[in-house]
Amino acid sequence: CFRGVFMEWIERDNLIDHGLSRTRLPWNEETIGDMESICNSYDGPAFESCWENIGRTHVRRGIVSDETLLFSLCQRALVPSGQDACYISGVASLVNIRARSGKTSGSELGPFCNRFLGNDRKLKQCIEQVVLYTMRTSPQFAQDIAGFCKNVPISQSDFCFEFLTYKLETITEKQREEICKEAYDSLHRICQ
Question: Are 110 and 152 in contact (CB under 8 A)?
Fold first, then answer.
């Protein structure tokens, strides 16, 4: 619930679509600072959801195009759980945008979650969000995500492929055939 509230508060896509707002919130240093102060005034799930939307918005609005700057900006959250929520949602958006651009390979995407090496729970959460967010956009990105799964830390590669397989179970047989025809080498675990 908080995700949707903060998404509309910051992005306003549906509010604009339904005529309840005319414009998006400008995303500049002033409004970013205001949003960060507001987010830092919350605690618990509201705090994390608010920071999650800041991370995603940094990427969607073009403020951030690499994970190093994203990580730096997310450190403005006063508590590590907000920093992680901001970074993970931002990384999921970065991978999604790069997959949609068609100008990237899975090997370039794999290291995005490496900030969580040594913390299996956070590493899995990052991997799960990348797969979920990108596959929700289009099953055609399965090859990109398979490349991502090949390049996550070896301890999590099986988990990544299992989660990708789970997400692909929701697509039609025709979609699966098309994906497997184009990307059998990288998706052989799924296409067999």
Answer: yes
Supply the DSSP symbol for 12.
Answer: -
Q: Residue-wise over 122-131: b if at least 16 C-beta within 10 A, else e? A: bbbbbbbbbb
**Torsion angle (degrees, nearest 10) of CA 38, 86, 115, 108:** -150
Would the CA dihedral through 155, 156, 162, 165 be positive or negative?
negative
pTM > 0.85: no
Question: Which of the 8 DSSP states describes residue 170?
Answer: T
Tens-level pLDDT at each residue, the chain (192 residues): 545 555 555 555 555 565 766 676 677 888 888 889 988 998 998 899 889 988 988 888 788 888 899 999 999 999 999 999 999 999 998 888 888 887 666 667 768 888 898 999 999 999 999 998 888 888 878 888 888 888 888 888 889 988 888 888 777 777 777 777 666 566 666 676
Calpha distance 109→104 (Å, rounded)? 8
